[in-house]
Fold this protein.
Amino acid sequence: MIDIVHLQDPYLRKLIKTKKQTAIIPIGSIEQHGPHLPISTDSDIVSEIARRISKKTDFLMLPTINYGVSSEHFPFFNISVTRTTLQRILIELCISLWKNKVETIIILNGHHGNQNALHNIPKKIHLLSKGKVKVSVFSYWHFMKRDFDHAGFVETSLMLAISKKVKMKKALKGFTTNGLSKKQKLQANKLASKSFISVARNGVWGDPRNATAKEGSKILSEIVQSFLKESNLPY
Ligand SMILES: [Zn+2]
């Protein structure tokens, strides 16, 4: 694993000179995750996935961007930046990596609300660098079989597997889509992306009560393995 914040300049520059490097930038959020998970949940999960990917591939792991676009969680607690700010930070980081001769970049996303800020970045960087820099954007839940939730079974299991910050005794059942039609599910998704509380009254999407660390470890391995198989990146 290459966690760049622990490395020194001469070592890093030599590494980049010797071999073409791929950098991975994890992005999370600081937002409510119900009464039982910490506000750092998305950042914690995406950092761990990036760490595991870097371990298998030797990608340069950059520090996680802990702030994301989470204002849809208001009036629940969230510390957010706007879509344009997040996009700008990422574009500037990619340009800076390019100046340091790192030309393959992965943006690994851990929060649903960040997605709109991310999808144009590969094209923008391609234009700005005249095709020299390749950026790929992935949201980690696309590499798992289970449905993504918010502080439900999946996120709670993932957190139990990687963290001691979970308060299982406080876990409450939240909004579930069981029995809803496809159309109703889409409507709920759309509304939640603007105002989460309008759909999930207690801030939880899913049911975390049966979450386990064992299941979380399984889901984590599945994500990392599928990522390595499907992302088509050099390593
Ligand atoms: Zn989350």
Notes: The pocket of zinc ion is lined by residues 33, 41-42, 111, 150, 155 (CB under 6 Å). Residues 3 and 61 are 5 Å apart (CA to CA). The radius of gyration is 18 Å. The first strand starts at residue 2 and ends at 3.
